[in-house]
Amino acid sequence: MDLSSEKVQRILSKYKFHDVAVEELQKIHRIYPGMKPSTGTYTFSDSTQKDLLKLVGNIPVQYEGRSYNFPIQLWLMDSFPFTPPICLLRPTPNMVIREGKHVDPRGRIYLPGLHNWDYPKSSVVVLLTEMIAKFEEDPPLSSKTTGENKDPHSLLAFVSNLQINDGGVRHHDQTINKVSVIGGGDLGMASVMSILAKCQVDKLVFIDVAESSTKGGSTDLEIFSLPKVEVSRDLSASAGSRVVVVTANAWSSEQSYVSVVQTNVDLYRGIIPNLARLSPNAVMLIASQPVDIMTHVAWRQSCLPPTRVIGAGCNLDSERLSRVLDINLNTHKLAWVIGELSDNKVPVMSNTGLSSDVQPDITPGSSSAKPLLDRAFEIMKNRGQRSWSVGLSIADITNSILTNKMKTHSVSTLAQGWGGIGAEVFLSLPCILGSNGSTRLAGVSLAQEEDSKLRDSVTTLSNLISQLRV
């Protein structure tokens, strides 16, 4: 492999494992000499850019007795080969992507070998071999001129001698309502059933994570095969989701609370970055416990904007509060429960009526509303947060995102800057939810008691997150 060009040398010199990377590139050249190195600027999902090395070429695919060439490009991260490449199809203008289990609408390729990447067991040579095998099972391209014709032969007839150029990936701008639920057990199952009942989904993927202690339900779903539901144990099945719900927990037998939470953080480290790469435009909805901490962890590990990583938080309590005020106390105003999902959570009310079209706001703390809210809280006592009720709450949040409803939910979100909070913590706050994620309502001055509870939560959560290896 010719690595002598000035551009390639300049970029390669910045790679953290330069000598190992060069050795791997030479191995690739020996097995796949058509994969040529070049340089380029890759734009990540958070809009940051980096100058990287990429491999561009064709891979040979056998389909029903005939041989064809499929155009691909592999972006090599600067920690290559210890991190997997980002793999893309490169169709010509008269070709389009056939979305499937291993390819999303933008042409990004997802394979078990990428998800389970572990150098030196993993390598690009092994990855390309796996890619060829998957493409032979299900060719990922179709011809733009064939209309309804799904026969891969109409495309493969002209890709057999395809030449590589520097054109980008072309695809249909097709949006499907795909939701993925990550984690089995009662809450995972409750979320699946509630989302199916409430939301108009085109596809719902249920992934039972092997390392999670909240297992179960996936086998029953496979046995009884519900419409629109795909059961998988491979995170790559979540690719292209609009909403990714994470219910997985990994409780350990450790004695200290920090150690117990750390097991969940370690579980997340193996799944959250992959979920973010598989669905870079999704809203990630966290329901693992403790929800405020795990939402914070998911945001850090995913590198997604804070508006697109939220936790189920106090949404259930907020819906119950509004119901009690409306039905039991004849007070027809919006209300939410905010703060940490603990004994320190506090109720707040809006001046806006339940049926108003005006954007809601939070009423500044006043003594007049406190007796009413305290009474509502007393009525809500002992209702608990059972799996089925949390599942219904998750479905309600998911529906607001899928339908761009712009409804105000109290969800766990980055609270820094709200109401004078200076620390980087996640708390439940009223947020308007739509297809692009969450927008917080403006912060207000709370009454002394409520403000004190919020500050105590900020201190507690800050101390806990500082002790975790995120």
TrEMBL record:
One of its GO terms (biological process) is protein transport. Residues 2-145 form the UEV domain. One of its GO terms (molecular function) is L-lactate dehydrogenase (NAD+) activity. Pfam families: Ldh_1_C, Ldh_1_N, UEV. This is UEV and lactate/malate dehyrogenase domains. It comes from Seriola lalandi dorsalis.
